[in-house]
Amino acid sequence: MSTQPKIKIAPSILASDFARLGEEVRAIDVAGADYIHIDVMDGHFVPNITIGPDVVKALRPHTKKTFDVHLMISPVDLYIDAFAKAGADIISFHPEAGNHPHRTVQAIRTAGCKPGVVLNPATPLEVLWPLLNDIDLVLVMSVNPGFGGQSFIESQLPRITEIRKAITASGRAIELEVDGGINFETAPRAIAAGADVLVAGTATFKGGESAYAANISKLRGHA
Ligand code: DX5
Ligand code: ZN
Question: Do the domain assignments include residue 202?
Fold first, then answer.
């Protein structure tokens, strides 16, 4: 879709060197990352454990870029304030992780962050519609959440297009982010389907620090 605004790239630090996390965040900032995508996993909602609010807080002084915090935890509401205080800008959650997704949206807004809703590959789009007018971002999972390095699930492309239509109809500035299996081959297809923010872990960090800038610009669609 040529009429779309500038594509944003959100490197997922899940694919970075965790022993040098601060340095890695500074490196992707300098390399042109728009958002820093932070995958929070609890070993309960998804079968992996990653980062908590203390790590987010420790990273905050390393960049001024938007912290795009993707919560894969259940319950969600209990931890919103901790992530907001740690420096999150956007907080996205999975509606399946709690009983009252609209309350969670309100809690994220009240905590001073932008709320995002995440749709797993099998989550019906109907879950999204009642929340659309109150959120700032929709995150479509193009893999099942839990791990980096998985393959892009094709069936998500028409869903991205359908959500893009609904966003346009809403008249609101809602970002449409796609997460999982994004690489140089799938990025243009996600963009063509209607995405304007691409999460990329493996594809950003491949080749080491000297490759980050070229990786990010290639994902954005620049040679
Ligand atoms: C998966 C995470 C993704 C993951 C993407 O649960 O939400 O953000 O890090 O990794 P790649 O880009 O390697 O598929
Ligand atoms: Zn993610």
Answer: yes
